[in-house]
Amino acid sequence: MKSIYTWSAILAIVFASVVGDVLLARAMKQVGDVGALWRRAGLGVVIGRTLGNSYFLFGVMAMAVAFFSLLFALSWGDVSLVAPAAASLTFIGNAVAARIFLHEKVDRRRWIAASLVAAGVALLAG
Amino acid sequence: MNFRKYLVLAGVTVFAAAGDSMLSHGMKQTGSISVHHLQDVIYAVLNPWVAFGILLLLAFFATYMTALSWADLTYVLPATSLGYVILALVARFVLHEHVSPLRWLGIALITGGVGFVAGGPELTKHEHPEPADELSTVADSPLLGKDAGNGAPEVGVSGKL
What we know:
The complex is a heterodimer of chains A (126) and B (161).
Chain A: H1 2-31, H2 34-41, H3 43-51, H4 54-76, H5 79-101, H6 108-125
Chain B: H1 3-30, H2 40-44, H3 48-70, H4 73-93, H5 101-118
């Protein structure tokens, strides 16, 4: 029974962090190249434009949800299961979500990279 | 990709790894926080390791956002995982801890994966830049000052500088 709780919390972490990453990535694409914007208009404009972006605010909220899900998961399951499972599933989830929602060209090269990294993270943190 | 951009990606990796280690070190000094005394977490912030760790994680967030402003999510994310490799190498060669063969295999896989993605382009070039939808109109608020006239977000700009 406890493992159902743990895995639900892990899925909640993965879902929330994928949503958060996609929203943050989209927000920053709308803000535009931060380095160029900084040189052109100053740091204040960069910060104002980022904090004023709705995607950014929702992204940060999603990241907060992911963080609290992590706390719940850690209170139900071992860190040696929760951390690698959540991290590596997030890599795969992000590759899928970036393709669907951000229209990134996730070609074979990026699929292989995401799978290698996910496997590597699972081994390292396990 | 120019040198400055590689520097930002290196910052993403290093700040994340260093920040997490400092937090972990500080929280072990603080001791475990009971569910019934959640306010203890406020005192944890007073621990210098925890405070410095939080500063580093803020730096991580800033560099991560910067990287996402000119590179694809699927390009930046593998780079963040290099932090795990740095932590394992520090554990082996600075702290002289034992690193098991399985972990060396994990290091090899991550390094290979990052090398794979780094060989490709960092930004998808969109033929038709997406028009700003209603959510993004907030970004065009008066806060922007002299940049407000720009209108459409720079979604489709080429990553090659």
